Amino acid sequence: MLSMMSAILFIGLVSTLAAPAVGCNSDLDCSLAGQCKSGACVCEKWTRGADCAELNLRNLSSASQLQAAVQPVDGFTTWGGSVVQDDDGLYHMFSAIMADRCSLSVWTFKSMVIHSTSTTPTGPFTKVDVAIPAEAHNPVLSRASDGTWLIWTCGCPNPSPAKECKHTAYTCPSNGQPATWTTTVYSSDSLNGPWKPHVGLLDNLTKGHLGSQNVSPLMGKDGTVHLMFKGPDNNTEASIAVAPHWSGPYSMVESNIFAKYFAANITNEDVWWWQTSDGNYHALSHRMEPTNRGSAASGGHAFATSMDDWSYASTPAYTTQVGVVGGGVVQLKRRERPQLLLGPDGTPKVLYNGVMDADGNAFTFAQVLG
Would residue 138 be called left, alpha or beta, if left means φ above 0 and alpha means ψ between -120 and 50 degrees? Predict the structure, then answer.
């Protein structure tokens, strides 16, 4: 196991919104994560606070509980994870792992996807195999209406990555675009693979632009897919595209959907979204300052009743401190790459993040909500 580390998610950006007012007038004042009753927010189990924007993350039983979810780590760097429970109750995690025991700095050309399993949603997860070789980063798992399993990544197949641990850019042969700004989805009939690549799904929208990155899908029962992604014009915006089938073709719904909330000192990446049983939308993203990826207010919370009208809570969803039962905290350097394990009704149950501890170790961590 690696040394301490934990993480939680983060959600959007705070920006121009004022601090939460005391009391509420509608459920929007409760971040659509609670009900406004008699002028006060009554939060759902997964949130807390005056405006229900803060994630209700359980404190760790002790500082020693801060450990990597994927075991054995064996000197490898993992970053984030996407988890699903199969019909037999086994949990499957797909996470980014750096080849050749390199540090996180090689994610642009030596990131692979590792498949691990566990009998519990928080792990430890044991390696099954390398599901997808380089270059594949920030895997997000979903399932199409016909039962096909999908792993969404930024990157494209790179059969011979250099052996040295040196930050290098890689260009996808199929489209001439940087791998870091190319969306590739891998499909399979089984969580055990094999996984077939489909490169450049958003190229028709991003050609001539910066590209697409960190895709997060919402799968429709009729086969349609809505993708929230970073891009197409800069690395601090989030946009939404839609297609009648996961394989495309995609058309733009709206670009830079959070633009009105960006403050001069706030940037955004790694958006991850979901829809709750009441039809509302919530999005998580990494909140940063332009010169400081590890700013203390590393989380935010975006929410909407429709895809074209988003709000951001001013209360951070979490900070870089992790609470411990009995008092005290553990300080982290970074919390990024949020993903959730959702219950059948869309309620968040477990948060997964790529985290970095005080010693600079980077790995995947899981924390329970509610």
Answer: left
